[in-house]
Design goal:
The protein has about 650 residues and is α+β, with helices and mostly antiparallel strands. It has 26 helices and 17 strands.
Length: about 650
Amino acid sequence: MFDFVRKHTRIMQFLLFLLIVPSFLLFGIEGYSRFRDKGETVAEVNGQDISQVEWDNAHKQEVERIRASSPNVDPKLLDSPRARYATLERLVHDRVLAAAADKAGLVTSDQRLRRALLEDPTIAALRQPDGALDKDRYRQLVSQQGLSPEGFEARIRSDISSHQVTAGVTGTGFAPAALADLAVNAFLEHREVQVARFNAADFAAKASITDADMDAFYQANQAMFQTPEQASIEYVVLDLDAVKKSLVLNEADLKTYYEQNQERLSGKEERRASHILIESPKSAAPEARLKAKARAQELLAAVQKAPDSFAELAKKNSQDVGSAANGGDLDFFTRGTMLKPFEDAAFALKKGEISAVVETDYGYHIIKLTDVKTPKQRSFEEVRPQIEADLMKQQAQRKFAETAEIFTNTVYEQSDSLKPAADRLKLEVHTASALMRQPAAGVKGVLANPKFLAAIFSPDSVEKKRNTEAVEIAPNQLVSGRIVQYAPARTLPLAEVKAQVRERLQASRGAELAKKEGMSQLAAWKAKPDSATLPAAINVSRDQPQNQPAALVEAALRADTSALPAFVGVDLGAQGYAVVKVNKTLARTGVTDESAKQDRAQYTQAWVTAENAAYYQLLKERFKVKINAAKGDGKTDTASPAAP
């Protein structure tokens, strides 16, 4: 059927036109939009559905956010079932808090929204010299998140309102010092132990293995001895660099860009200033603020009488420890590096002038402008390489969408080869061999991208050797590939893997013998404690495990110490077995006032987190949360998820 569609594209377009247009006339565009937006319900909150489409979109945004902040993160981790389920949990979490905020009537005022936006360093950096927000850059910033300014601000309002739901819990949680000390000291107490290890490796050589044993092990564990499916492929990548190769810059455009951006291309003006600071943070009492301001006014009067004494007065009176010793000198700075009131005052002065008293969040300043560096205007030829790079990038970004459509259509319509797309767009055809569904260690880029690998190993690609669809593997980056040669997964014959079978079987038998011997010794020593011959005692705790396995330390600390000595056995799996003799329970040592203070703070934080999780659990029950999707472990969770 798909072959017919590919060969008769125009006929199919005409038939689809005949089918779709009447439907639009009967049901309208809105009906189609509703149909398109429908998807399987993956969760419910307060009677409202969360669809598969919403989940997919949320996860896509989350992946893009993580890739932007951590480009080297393993792509497999981002698209794993566990990662996708975590996104759904966050989506449910946000819906629950939004429902609680709505029910409680919590709203965010315009003033609170404005303050929140300006507290964001990224948005604050968009302010112009006059203090107004650069609306064009702001719109561009939020559009990168797929939102309009109105949609972005609505989301911030919702976030602030949702935060208020849990603020009452997180803001009032506390743990008494005595309770914190008791819990932390109990958790980190020490045990004096003696450990007898029965290592699997020591018993492996004692294992008697026959050909029949190896055959039985091989038959029962054939998955261990498989070679994965592999493919040799061709692929082409369309990205901004590829688009740039087809662009030719116009000389007139270069000069226009130069004229419009001369100031930016030449650099920013720098100013050097000294200041005298009388500290008084905004959180200080009004009386203290008035007193500090009065002191600053006194110093200003002294400076105005004797301007040359500024440096000496700064050394004696300024409360800015970093600059006072240098006469208040702050060295050179540009716009955007100082607090706005300070910056505005400094850039309004002429060289040698002294400001009035300037109020900032830190207190009150007297500023003296000591030098000005005006950037030298650079000629067109000096900045030509930078202009070409800037314009090339801008034009490539504008042209990418058009080129991407050509790329997408060509690899689909001429699916038996990548050459037509490569020739038309002047792209290089790359090759790779021994490609597997899971990328080899150290492989990065296209050949490690899970979306591309899934497309390459899809049934249509494997069986018919057709081009994959154009897969978006990063912003402004598409790839399509096709299989040239394919080798399915196969189980290697016993003759080829006999050595591996023997090695694995010996390790397994060694662990079994080690456990058997360990359990036998444990029983004997429990019956006659004095007969136990063990290595020298060591002190272990959760924060000082002494290189012992975590399972062993945990077993020692959980042992019943009502009657000492106490013996416990610990199954260490493939490593073997251990018998632990607990001799003493020891109090935690080396606790200073400072470390105790840190411990209490951490315990309080953990307590508050637990209270917040309990409150969130209550909200989930109140708003009847139900998750229909399977967890990352494959199990379906119809109960509410844990709080993020």
